[in-house]
Amino acid sequence: IPCIYDNVNWFQGNYAIVEKNSKFGLINREGKEIVPCIYEVIDWLFFEGYTGVKKNGKWGFIDEEGKEVIQFIYDSTHCFNEGYASVTKNGKWGFINKEGKEVIPFIYDDTYCFNEGYAHVTKNGKWGFINKEGKEVIPCIYDSAWDFEEGYARVKKNSKWDYINKIGVEYWED
User: Fold this and answer.
1) CB 37 within 8 A of CB 26
2) Taking the complete model, does pTM exceed 0.85, yes or no?
């Protein structure tokens, strides 16, 4: 790796984030610059071939070749998973697909990535789950929620943690 960078992070997968003049880029394991140091921030990992990057105060996405694939119009981003990424505009979160089309409206206070076909979202301080069509399939009634894993999600309601299945049946421990 040539001594031209102010900082070189460790490799995660095939890439390392590098810094030059307070801007960030990516190099591969051979030291070749894949993405020039032009971004304010680069998300650490590629998911489904894309990673979020910040330029001129706004977020967009690049692919693993460094090509800007989704325009820089978002205030924040989460990674792609199952073909969708959650992004925020004007203080509200929604979802885009890999073509950059806004597929689920910007109506949520917070969101996380899709996992097993569901994403946990929050409205008015309560968490629930939506499907990929944007339908709220489990109401926003929980104080906290985690991703679905093997058909179950961990949720918290009334200071108690337990699990729900994908149709919202609760499995509370005594």
Assistant:
1) no
2) yes
